[in-house]
């Protein structure tokens, strides 16, 4: 790993909690799929530098009208396929939405249980 890749890795790490960047989506995808960065790089068929370029890109909203156009621009800049980028974003977005819905259901069930106990 050269010094530029080290800097890109550091920058990617710093923004990994911010869901407006691809770094967040890549990190979540790695965790969901239980794969390493090396496996992901191989799956995306890109270099380490391209992977970190992708990580530093702003993440498009999959429900936006210009989602495909934004992914195409990211693909052109990073050399990562449109399909690969889209797959990562949609998978993470879907799992996050399902997790949010399950959390809401759990909280509502807990609240309802407490109400029932208070009324008894």
- Mean pLDDT, nearest integer? 86
The figure for the number of domains is: 1
Q: What is the number of helical segments per DSSP (H or I, 4+ residues)? A: 6
- Write the H/E string, N to C: HHHHHH
Strand element count: 0
Distance from N terminus to C terminus (CA atoms, Å) equals: 65 Å
User: Which ranges are low-confidence, i.e. pLDDT below 50, for 5 or more consecutive residues?
Assistant: 106-112
Could you name the key traits of this structure?
0% strand; single chain; 6 helices; 75% helix; mainly alpha
Q: Quick gist of this model?
A:
The chain has 120 residues and is mainly alpha-helical. It is built from 6 helices and no strands. It has one domain.
Outline the structure in words.
- By secondary structure, the chain is mainly alpha-helical.
- Helices cover 75% and strands 0% of the residues.
- The chain has one domain (3-119).
- It has helices spanning 3-14, 22-33, 37-44, 48-55, 67-78, 82-119.
- Helix 1 runs parallel beside helix 4, helix 2 packs across helix 6 (82-119) and helix 4 packs antiparallel against helix 5 (67-78).
